[in-house]
From TrEMBL:
EC numbers for this chain: 3.4.-.-
Residues covered by the Peptidase M15C domain: 101-168
Alphabetically ordered keywords of this record: Hydrolase, Membrane, Transmembrane, Transmembrane helix
Gene3D superfamilies registered for this protein in UniProt: 3.30.1380.10
One example GO MF annotation: hydrolase activity
Entry's transmembrane regions: 7-25
Alphabetized Pfam families for the sequence: Peptidase_M15_4 (PF13539)
Claim: Transmembrane is one of the keywords in the record: yes
Keyword match Disulfide bond: no
The protein's name: Peptidoglycan L-alanyl-D-glutamate endopeptidase CwlK
């Protein structure tokens, strides 16, 4: 009898443990993503609160290193993306993006672009500028801070390098975002 009771207790523990693991796994998956209904309507897209919070931290940290970061772009509508994609193709100018509407993390409020304000107050895109005179490029210092905060930097991309670009994918691909999947807020 004593032996049976022990076996029973052991089984209960095993079953409870397995149930707990399943529940936690399920919750984790549930909590990471949500599906949105009107995936073709981008008018409501806002900068994701975590991206927004990390952007503020980036500005603070850069300021402490005497670098004045300027955010030049956050959320970009599908219409704006089409216009940018047309530039250098069906309209004048240089090609500035390889992403069509819906193919940029900007379209989902998950990306920002930055530039630097120099000591004269001009906004510059000079990646070698060293305004704080510490022997390091300010631009690369900003990229390093951003990466520490969890951003992916477009300057690290192997092909088309997008130096002003910072994004957070939350593990979601563009394909998943297009289908209406969104990181939870
Ligand atoms: Zn960008």
């Amino acid at each position: 009898m004593k032996h049976l009771k022990k076996d029973f207790v052991a089984w209960v523990i095993v079953v409870l443990f397995v149930m707990m693991v399943f529940t936690i796994y399920h919750q984790m998956n549930q909590n990471r993503y949500e599906y949105i209904e009107n995936k073709d309507d981008d008018s409501y897209e806002q900068l994701h609160p975590i991206v927004s919070e990390k952007m503020e931290e980036l500005l603070d940290k850069a300021t402490k290193q005497n670098i004045h970061v300027v955010i030049t772009e956050t959320v970009r509508t599908m219409e704006k993306q089409e216009e940018l994609y047309a530039q250098g193709r069906s309209s004048e100018g240089n090609i500035i993006t390889y992403a069509q509407a819906g193919e940029s993390y900007h379209n989902y409020g998950l990306a920002i672009d930055f530039a630097i304000e120099n000591s004269q107050g001009d906004v510059i895109w000079d990646t070698s500028y060293d305004g704080n005179n510490n022997g390091k490029s300010d631009w690369l210092e900003v990229a390093d801070i951003a990466k520490e905060l969890g951003f992916e930097w477009g300057g690290d991309w192997p092909n088309f390098k997008d130096f002003p670009h910072l994004q957070m994918s939350f593990g979601l691909s563009i394909e998943e975002l297009k289908k209406g999947k969104r990181p939870l807020k």
